[in-house]
Every structure is written in C-alpha cells, then in structure tokens.
From TrEMBL:
The lineage of its organism: Bacteria, Bacillati, Actinomycetota, Actinomycetes, Geodermatophilales. Residues 1-44 form the Insertion element IS402-like domain. Residues 74-104 are annotated as: Disordered. This is Putative transposase of IS4/5 family DUF4096. Residues 87-104 have a biased composition (Basic and acidic residues). It comes from the Bacteria. InterPro entries: IS402-like_dom, Transposase_6_like.
C-alpha cells in the first residue's frame, strides 16, 4: 500500500489511475486517510528520522525553491499607478515607517 500511495503522489495522478498491480485504489486511499488520522504517518516519519540521524545519514538543511511563486489571483490584475513601484525612485523616497530619510 505504501508503494501505491507513493506512486499517486509522485506522479500527481488521480486515485482512480493508480495501477492495478498495487491493488484497488480505494484500499490505498482508505489506508492513507486512516493512517493520517491516527498518527501512523507521523510515527513512521519520526522513527525514520531518528534512525537516519543516529546513523549520521540525516542532513537537516532545508531549501525552498521560489521559482514557482506566483501572485494571488486577485493581485494579478491590479492596476499600477506611476509605473513599476519596485523600481521607481524619486526625491521623496521614504523609509518603511513613512518618514523621510535623516539625510534629506
């Protein structure tokens, strides 16, 4: 069942497309939801992490790829006033609190 669940999430396919050699898709789905609700997945992950950490095989480095970050659907069509606000510079540049820079 774990192979069926991993296949489903690895491919992004719908449950009904899980190959028959994994068994009925309904069984994999029901097992996933049951194990998620009763904490089985959390215990499996904690055990695997503890074993890997004890063996020195675990690297706790985490990286987030921001190349697919997109604007919210309501922000995509917002009107711009005065051009691109991110690159616009003028003599009245303010700091983040809304006040003038001390050297101006």
């Amino acid at each position: 069942m774990i192979e069926a669940i991993s296949w489903k999430y690895r491919t992004g396919s719908p449950w009904r497309e899980v190959p028959e050699h994994f068994g009925p898709w309904q069984t994999a789905y029901e097992r996933l939801t049951r194990w998620s609700a009763d904490g089985t997945w959390a215990r499996l992950l904690a055990r695997a992490q503890a074993d890997a950490d004890a063996a020195g095989e675990l690297d706790w480095l985490v990286a987030a790829d921001s190349t697919v970050v997109r604007v919210h659907q309501h922000g995509a069509s917002a009107r711009r006033v005065g051009g691109n606000a991110a690159t616009r510079r003028d003599a009245a540049d303010d700091d983040q609190e809304g006040g003038r820079h001390p050297d101006q």
